[in-house]
Write a structure and sequence with these properties.
The complex is a heterodimer of chains A (124) and B (109).
Chain A (H helix, E strand, L loop, with lengths): L2 E5 L2 E3 L5 E8 L7 E7 L5 E7 L6 E3 L7 E6 L4 E6 L8 E9 L9 E5 L3 E5 L2
Parallel strand pairs in A: 2-11
Antiparallel strand pairs in A: 1-3, 3-8, 4-5, 4-9, 5-6, 7-8, 9-10, 9-11
Chain B lengths: L3 E4 L2 E4 L5 E11 L4 E6 L6 E5 L3 E2 L7 E14 L9 E6 L7 E2 L3 E5 L1
Parallel strand pairs in B: 2-10
Antiparallel strand pairs in B: 1-3, 3-7, 4-5, 4-8, 5-6, 8-9, 8-10
The chains are: A mainly beta (124), B mainly beta (109).
Chain lengths: 124, 109
């Protein structure tokens, strides 16, 4: 079964750090672009970050650039999001998603597989 | 940044009726890079449509997507009870940021 499972969420004080992990199974991670998407309580979806299949290209939303770092370890079938200098507005469910080009030619792809999400709460 | 505006915010319909959801972009989006997602309470979103009109694996044919340029539509024919949910459009074009619309909630009338 193709699956993504996030972990690492929790309660953190403003200014603190967290590292999210996403374990992929049922497919070869190295063949796909990957993204993080978040959803604040009661709000819509916000794209956070992208990393190309081999890690050669990375992009961030303006709201997290300079504070968050995306990375991947294809040998371990894992994706990561290091989050530093956390703010109250970073409180959200964070989803790991797989980008699938289908027949588009890339570079990002539609998000065809989503994890169940991990909750990050930034509060004192 | 391409801003996607979805309308209406809420659509109240009965099972068996047709739902028509709109997604308008602030600038032209290649239809190759337009997707629709469904999200039910407490669940992760699910890909319904990619490339503006192609159904993802396992998506029933009552779901269809259309449009080009700045105007895109998701149509759900003969609403089933499990179709009542929130729907998001997304553009995933060649330049970041990728963006989502604000969502349309389809609720039971």
């Amino acid at each position: 079964e193709v699956q993504l499972v996030e972990s690492g969420g929790g309660l953190v004080q403003p200014g603190g750090s967290l590292r999210l992990s996403c374990a992929a199974s049922g497919f070869t991670l190295s063949g796909y672009e990957m993204n993080w998407v978040r959803q604040a309580p009661g709000k819509g979806l916000e794209w956070v970050s992208y990393i190309r299949s081999r890690g050669t290209s990375i992009n961030y939303a303006d709201s997290v650039r300079g504070r968050f770092t995306i990375s991947r370890d294809n040998a371990k079938n894992s994706l990561y999001l290091q989050m530093n200098s956390l703010r109250a507005e970073d409180t959200a469910v964070y989803y790991c998603t797989r980008g699938n080009w289908f027949d588009s030619g890339g570079p990002f792809g539609a998000f065809d597989i989503w994890g169940q999400g991990t909750t990050v709460t930034v509060s004192s | 940044e391409i801003v996607l505006t979805q309308s209406p915010g809420t659509l109240s319909l009965s099972p068996g009726e047709r739902a028509t959801l709109s997604c308008r972009a602030s600038q032209s989006v290649s239809s190759t890079y337009l997707a629709w997602y469904q999200q039910k309470p407490g669940q992760a979103p699910r890909l319904l449509i990619y490339g503006a009109s192609s159904r993802a694996t396992g998506i029933p044919d009552r779901f269809s997507g259309s449009g080009s340029g700045t105007d895109f539509t998701l149509t759900i024919n003969r609403l089933e009870p499990e179709d009542f949910a929130v729907y998001y459009c997304q553009q995933y074009g060649r330049s970041p940021p990728l963006t989502f619309g604000g969502g349309t909630k389809v609720e039971i009338k």
